[in-house]
Amino acid sequence: MQTLSLEYPAGDPPPRRALAGVVGSGDLEVLLEPGSAGRSTVAVRTSVDGVNEIWTAVIDRIFADDNGPAVAVEINDFGATPAVVRLRIAQAMEQATRQSDGATP
Amino acid sequence: MGRVKDLNGGDYSRPRDRAPIFRPHDLVHIAPEALQNEAPDWARAVLANGEPVVVRRGWRDGNRLPVGVRGASRDRRHAMQVAPEHICGAVITPESLVESAAPQRAADVPALAALVELRALMTPWAGAWGIGGAVGYELASGVAACHEDSDIDLLLRLLERPDTAALRRLAAQLAELPVRCDLQMETPAGGVALADWLSEAADVLVKSDQGPYLAADPWRRGNL
């Protein structure tokens, strides 16, 4: 088990928390909560050794926008590929930032 | 089924008596010379030991099959493509492993000990379900791939969308087993985790040969 903590400049926090993903091989769980204004934090726990560099590269890209939503993200990884990581974080981000529940088709 | 070794992909939710022949989670034996020069030494050792490789999801051009060599730890996975002339013998399907006798190691490995109970509860899905992951690998190869904390990776082919109540019942039964079971449904769109489909989320993650994507309903035709 390895852990990784990352931090990025960000804009304002989103209105609500969100969950995405499931426990299971090749997937991951994302718990995303509104963070403190101006700062996003990402904590990754992974069962795969030796993949910290890949994780850092993938997450750096996702949080490259300094004005993105300020979120505190916790990730439990079960061997997800970078493409799955991006989709699951995007899914959680979309839920957290949606203007009001059910308003968008 | 066309050619002797039809490597084409397709709809993996179809029953096994139809194409595609080689599907994700299947095990095949390949000739060691199929490994490229850059392959790690541990991968060579795995093949030299007579162990199979696992068919992967991935782009198929009909001439090469995407497979992965499985090493002893989770960071030891070597992805490669294999040409038909390097594939030896018949494909070992996850469905064929469900009747395997529990190995001697059942006393030490809870996942192997749970197989009897698992088989009983999967009876309604006979012919459509199979065992993958470390348990499937160990059943197929006899290699001690499982460890004390291994979970069970299950696969269920569902050409049509099943009744949600039946899936909820199945998920509840699996949750009662003494070992964690992760069930992946093979749908016409690709692999979808049962837990994901039964969750509140609007979309599920679909693992396809073209890569993962999100979809609302993996059984709806014209999804793409």
UniProtKB/TrEMBL annotation, chain A:
Keywords: Cytoplasm, Phosphoprotein. GO terms for molecular function: acyl carrier activity. It is found in: Cytoplasm. It comes from the Bacteria. GO terms for cellular component: cytoplasm. The keyword Transit peptide does not apply. The keyword Phosphoprotein applies. Pfam families: ACP. The modification O-(phosphoribosyl dephospho-coenzyme A)serine is found at residue 25. Covalently binds the prosthetic group of malonate decarboxylase. Its main location: cytoplasm. Belongs to the MdcC family. Subunit of malonate decarboxylase, it is an acyl carrier protein to which acetyl and malonyl thioester residues are bound via a 2'-(5''-phosphoribosyl)-3'-dephospho-CoA prosthetic group and turn over during the catalytic mechanism. This is Malonate decarboxylase acyl carrier protein. It comes from Salinisphaera hydrothermalis (strain C41B8). The gene is mdcC.
Automatic annotation (TrEMBL), chain B:
It holds the Pfam family MdcG_N. GO terms for molecular function: nucleotidyltransferase activity. Keywords: Nucleotidyltransferase, Transferase. InterPro entries: Holo-ACP_synthase (IPR017557), MdcG_C (IPR049180), MdcG_N (IPR048903). Signal peptide: none annotated. It comes from the Bacteria. Residues 23-87 form the Phosphoribosyl-dephospho-CoA transferase MdcG N-terminal domain. Residues 104-218 form the Phosphoribosyl-dephospho-CoA transferase MdcG C-terminal domain. This is Phosphoribosyl-dephospho-CoA transferase. It comes from Salinisphaera hydrothermalis (strain C41B8).
